[in-house]
Amino acid sequence: MHLYLSEGPRTLYLVTSSEDERSGRPRRALVFRAAEGSTSKAIVEFLQKDDVDFSNAVRLSSRAIKGCLGLISVSNEMFLAVVTSATEVGNTRPSASSPESVARIHDVSFYSLTSSTWDDLSAAADALPSPSYTDSVDMLMMQRNEASSAQSSAAAAFEHPCAPLTKILSSGSFYYALEPYWDISSRLSQRLSRDRVSMKDINTFDERFVWNEYIVRSLLDFRDRLDQDERNDLDRCQFIILTIQGFVGLFTLALPAPPTNGSPTVATLTLISRLGWKRAGTRFNTRGVDDDGNCANFVETETLFSTDQHCFSYVQVRGSIPLFWEQQGLQTFGQRIQITRPQASQPAFERHFAQLTEEYGAVHAINLLSTKESEASLTAAYARHMQIAHNVFGADVDMTHFDFHNAVRIGGHDSVIRDLRRLEGINDNMERFGFTMCDSATDEIITEQKGVFRTNCLDCLDRTNFVQDILSRATLEQFLTLVRREWLRAGSLWSYHRELWAENGDALSRIYAGTGALNTSFTRSGKRTLAGVLSDATKSVSRAYINNFQDKNKQVAIDMFLGNLSDQRQVTVFDPIHDSVRAALEQRLSEYSTTKQCTIFAGTWNLNGRPPSSESLLPWLFPQINVPEPDIFVIGFQEVVPLTAQQILQTDPEKRRIWEAKLLETLARHPNKKEEYVILRSEQLVGTALIVLVKAQLTSVIRNVEATTRKTGLRGMSGNKGAVGIRLDYHDTSFCFLTAHLAAGHSNIQERNADYWTIVNGLQFLRGKTIKSHDNVIWLADTNYRIDLENETVRALALSDNLDALLAADQLKQVMDAKAAFVGFEEGPILFRPTYKYDVGTDNYDTSEKMRIPAWTDRILYKGKQLDLTVYSRAELRSSDHRPVFAVFRAEIRIIDSIKRAALSRMLLDSVTSTAPGEKLDEKLASLTFHQDDTDLPPPSSDDAAWWDSPDHPNGVFNVSESSVSTGPQSRNPFDSPSDSPLSSSPSSSDEELYAHALQLPTPMAPTVAGRKPPPPPPPRSNRPSRQNGDAA
């Protein structure tokens, strides 16, 4: 197929070529253009090729186009992604009734629908020499860089907005099905269990593994709205490509057959790895699990062995340990692991295994982590969560621990093969799970796999691939023992099997870690050689560099492609019916959602580097008696450690942990205790720490918890000053909590303002989320803003509780009034004395040599329509030179019922598209869209005449008579539900009853018309309007 462009309006045409048509594809064109004034709404048409005028069109690419991946909005422009180079890998199952061939993508180009700015860059990228189709990504990138440097200086001055996406999609790790009627994203047993219609429907796929689902969704929705014949033609044209990321490899080999005619049996050995996209990312940027149970580096790997009689399928999965853990900061060869939510991981852990058991049946986890050093903490936490999960899943979920490194250290890699097969948990489950086998002639399933092994190490790469190779071979041996025992001794079969698994390990490792896998020399040859050891050492060094210095940009590109960035808008195809339904859904939010109240305690305290004392925290954490316990505690500490050079260079988290224990102890021992609390998340930047504690029962409804930091000291290089942020979603309401320590010094107001803007503009969470991305934001900080009065005056006013005079000179109030910082934030009334600076252990303001001026440095500010401040005060704790401050908020939490929303959406759609007898849908939609009133509108104004300036209306005065008021029949709102609908637009009939009752009331006394002054005449008009005055027609 070919890609053409025409201007006026700018339109792209994806058209079948003569070669396509000779192979049986219809003569059709898929036409794209952007809706006027929009960068996220496209107009798409599926036309006969002969109905398209190509007289003013130019061909954009000299290459044949393989298909399109979808539409994406980037940098306020809309782009069409097309595959410009791909090679066939082969037929994965030749014994099937129809070919099941796979192609590997090598080049993808992005063409703008909204601007010609990038046409030259797209053409230059298209003109690059095709890469050699090797597995060497380094060679591929070197060729690209050399070609790019040879481009013109004008092109080199700009980078295509989609260049990062092009690099990822052209890396050789994406594959698609060459035939439209088979689904590469689904394993064999899943495909064969579908009915005939679903089996050939391209919109039926395993959504966990289709990577372009976000950008292709609008085209799939467009396809679904076509009639059946048009839909079939669109599928036959193969304009739309669904792609997986991972690895596909196959070998065809001859195996000895029974002595009938002497010809051997031709068999095909295939390996397909499907990488999940729901928690996609790079090695140090994406670890563990998310709140929906999706884990990082999740891969389903299927081994297929096909002959003319049977087809064998065996599935395994791998994935990061399903806990909340990460590795922050510079990582070299020592792994610094942090379990971020140790007490709140169980709901997500169980969601993950619930998904696996629903998809695959029983699950047996194989944990290959070491029992020593840093990996031991993960192993212990994994085992603890699995033990609790047994109460939910019983025998369907179990785990075997196998210290891979220790086994290799003692007996070499050969011992791993022997030891694994001897382990009772693994050996028994291999027999129990079995494999899938089908009849090649009829596709009838003879036996089906009943469970799956889930293998993991730290990265789920090298050790995991080694063990999965062993399990794949052992299960294939089981199958061959049943169907053809002599093939067990076929050396070529096992040689190809080892090669496929080695290539699989390299491919998955390059995607996640940037280099090929370790241990693949042993996987390929069965031997550990010096060359293999040196290769592994080189790869380890390369990984350390790539993961620390290159992966962040790659992570952003991945998130952009998957639609994870918070400011992204998904491209939709123009469809007034569905657009109207979406708008109506937003207006009727209350019909499919509910709200509930929650209480949030926010507290901030500068600890002056001191550890907990014997002083109780109860006056601070529970200032009110006989009130319900807060649902969420948000505690911000500053100077949790002394701000020394050693702490700045390498912060000690132990002091924070001591304070965490003190908080938990206080919550557990307060007199009216009714609830258990757990630490949801904590984070530290040198001396600044933020801790969020929640009721244990809420951990299952609080999701997407993330933490981040932003340094502001020494112009952003030092963490002695800065901020820590934690964000979360409580049901469907988002919160962002921030604690900060801003620049010190009485007169350094501008520095503090600059710190604030550095934090607001530079503090980012994952997927591009910022502070502004949230419904509710609460700052609890040592802002360091002071009071601009003399020391003696401040002290006298403070001791006499003359707070108004002090507040008038408060720097933060002045800054907020001038909108120099904390724009849009509110603060409760300050009814307490300044909280800084005291002699420790006393109620006396600073009597040291420096005699600091008292000030309200410790503040809590907030923004959010759902937040209602109920208490704002300070606590009289004396173990620091600051007094702690606290605020209590009531917040409204929105809970959306997705089932009700879907039902309402269907009902609204039906109400628009249904027609009465004799009514045409086109006419109904036109009347809904273009409603014309009984009275015509006046003609538009021009430079020479205005509609209000006419003899009939002197001085622009109009008399409104009763006859001008429309009394004709009003069109029914298309989104009003039928009166008998369970989802009526009116929650009750009370309004209708009141209206009916009002009609029966006596007519009220007719009002008299009050006189009024005529409106002032319009401004005088000159022959030509003045541009300076901004006049417009």
What this model shows, in words?
Residues 958-974 have a biased composition (Polar residues). Residues 1013-1022 have a biased composition (Pro residues). Residues 165-514 form the SAC domain. InterPro entries: Endo/exonu/phosph_ase_sf, IP5, IPPc, SAC_dom. Its EC number is 3.1.3.36. This protein is α+β, with helices and mostly antiparallel strands and 1033 residues long. The chain folds into 3 domains: 1-125 and 161-241 and 529-573, no CATH class; 246-515, no CATH class; 597-896, Deoxyribonuclease I, Chain A. Helices cover 31% and strands 23% of the residues. It is built from 29 helices and 32 strands. The strands form 5 sheets. Strands 6, 7, 8, 9, 10, 11, 12, 13, 16, 17, 18, 19 and 20 form a 13-stranded mixed β-sheet that branches. The chain has a 6-stranded mixed β-sheet with strand order 5-1-2-3-4-21, with helices on one face. Strand 1 (2-6) and strand 2 (11-15) form a beta hairpin. Helix 10 crosses helix 11, helix 14 runs antiparallel to helix 15 and helix 19 (576-587) packs across helix 27 (898-913). Residues 128-156, 930-936, 960-999 and 1001-1033 have low confidence and may be disordered.
